[in-house]
Automatic annotation (TrEMBL):
This is MBL fold metallo-hydrolase. Keywords: Metal-binding. InterPro entries: Metallo-B-lactamas, Mito_Persulfide_Diox, POD-like_MBL-fold, Rhodanese-like_dom, Rhodanese-like_dom_sf, RibonucZ/Hydroxyglut_hydro. CDD domains: POD-like_MBL-fold, RHOD.
């Protein structure tokens, strides 16, 4: 069977391309759809269907643009109520893609419309299942997202539905089926996903905690809900965009790709209330940045941190990027629904600096300087890593304020005495530094390379860093 996983690491997202005999289907596409169109063109195939496993929370799907550009039919599973033209399938309905068949299996639990698609090859053999967020490798979808859109859908109720879907719809299927999930490790849609992005169903039945054959529904609900962190604030907003519809990415790009001179950028910042978002690396941001701008580096989990830290997807944004990186930044913002970029600083920060405009910096210290200061002064230390990272190992006496909770705990940061910031490697602590600077904190330093460097020192191992089992 010709099926291809198209994986986007920064969102831990997997879309799928299926092709047979000149017809193609896309499952759970990202916002930018041209790569899928190009892939089908390479096979001289027409995209016939866009299959959606559910209304996604962690990204804005590209189904509407694919429909507009290719004429493909959008397909959702039972109970879905999209605000645009789409086919809402019935449980068990079969669709033909060339010589292949795609069978709808309604698997509510992550959301009520969640659907698994069974792939059947040209010989009639069942090949695999595209599971969306129903079944991951090593995990299952969290059941606490839909209640943020429909309050009566409690996490306990949805977890019960998910238990039934897994036991009655998924686990009876053949062990040799290949599981094709929508996400891998790093996604906030689950809590303990594997780094592997496909597996056989039989192996998952053996190793996935949620598929234990002897697990009762009560045990399943308890284990599934234990340890769930608060979902990012942008999730419900993305769900509504996927339900109701959204602007074409072409429209978003056209209104965002507006180069602004230094004076024009400054005027726009003063007149609109737009957030100035600087996407440069932490080391360059620290050396100089436009006052009141926030740093979220355009690497790794950029879009997810934007979603965690900017509460409203409708927030107007002015971009400061490395020259030539503005289009990538706009695209990655749009993937999570931030469609209101209104321009970018032409020439980047260097143009601002050359114009003689005021700028700010962030003081940084090496790990050696941190060691010396810790031994002689015992400074106040703030660790902005996740609680699980902090619980594993941390600087004795450090205060843990996870980056995604920083806005709720600003009162813990003193303004009358100096302190030290660190994360694991310097990315998150620079985001925190920029947020604190914007809010008036100045008397602090950031540790270059963060805890990754601190934990490797001999002093750290023996003296002031310890595992929680010793606390």
């Amino acid at each position: 069977m010709k099926i291809e996983q198209i994986y986007t690491g920064c969102l831990a997202h997997a879309a799928y391309y299926l092709e047979s005999n000149g017809e193609a289907a896309i499952f759970d596409p990202l916002r930018e759809v041209q790569p899928y169109i190009d892939r089908a063109k390479k096979d001289n195939a027409k995209i016939k269907y866009v299959f959606e496993t559910h209304f996604h929370a962690d990204f804005v799907s590209g189904h509407l643009d694919l429909q507009k550009k290719t004429g493909a039919q959008i397909v959702f599973g039972p109970t879905a109520k999209p605000g645009y033209d789409a086919l809402v399938a019935t449980d068990g309905q079969v669709f033909e893609v060339g010589d292949y068949k795609v069978k709808v299996i309604h698997t509510p639990g992550h959301t009520m419309e969640s659907t698994t698609y069974l792939l059947i090859d040209e010989t009639g053999k069942e090949h695999g299942i595209v599971t969306g967020d129903t079944l991951f490798i090593g995990d299952v979808g969290r059941p606490d997202l839909a209640q943020h859109v429909i309050s009566e859908l409690t996490e306990e109720k949805l977890a019960g539905y998910l238990y039934d879907s897994l036991r009655n719809k998924i686990m009876p299927l053949s062990d040799d089926l290949i599981v094709y999930p929508n996400h891998g490790a790093g996604s906030a849609c689950g809590k303990m996903m594997s780094k592997e992005t496909t597996d056989t169903l039989g192996h998952q039945k053996k190793v996935n905690y949620a598929l234990r054959a002897d697990m009762t529904k009560e045990e399943f609900i308890k284990e599934l809900l234990t340890g769930l962190t608060t979902p990012p604030g942008y999730f419900p907003q993305n769900v509504l965009m996927n339900i109701k519809g959204y602007d074409s990415l072409d429209t978003v790009m056209d209104r965002a790709k507006i180069p602004l001179s230094v004076d024009g950028f400054e005027a726009a910042a003063n007149e609109t209330g737009a957030l100035m978002l600087d996407t440069r690396d932490a080391k360059d941001f620290a050396k100089g940045f436009v006052p009141n701008s926030i740093n979220i580096g355009l690497v790794g989990n950029f879009a997810q941190w934007v979603g965690e830290l900017i509460p409203d997807v409708k927030q107007e944004i002015l971009l400061i990027t490395y020259p030539g990186k503005q289009e990538e930044a706009i695209t990655r913002l749009s993937r999570v629904g931030y469609d209101n970029t209104i321009g970018y600083l032409e020439g980047g920060f260097e143009s601002w600096k050359k114009a003689g405009k005021d700028f700010e910096t962030v003081d940084r210290i090496s790990v050696d300087e941190f060691e010396a200061a810790y031994e002689s002064e015992k400074p106040l230390v703030f660790d902005v890593r996740r609680k699980s990272e902090y619980d594993s190992e941390h600087v004795i006496g450090a205060i843990n304020v996870p980056l995604n909770e920083l806005n709720q705990h600003l009162s813990q940061f003193p303004k009358d005495k100096p302190f030290v910031l660190h994360c694991a490697g310097g990315y998150r602590s620079m985001i925190a530094a920029s947020m604190l600077k914007q809010r008036g904190w100045n008397d602090f330093v950031d540790v270059v390379e963060g805890f990754d460097a601190i934990s490797k020192t001999s002093v750290a191992k023996s003296d002031y860093v310890c595992p929680t089992t010793m606390l």
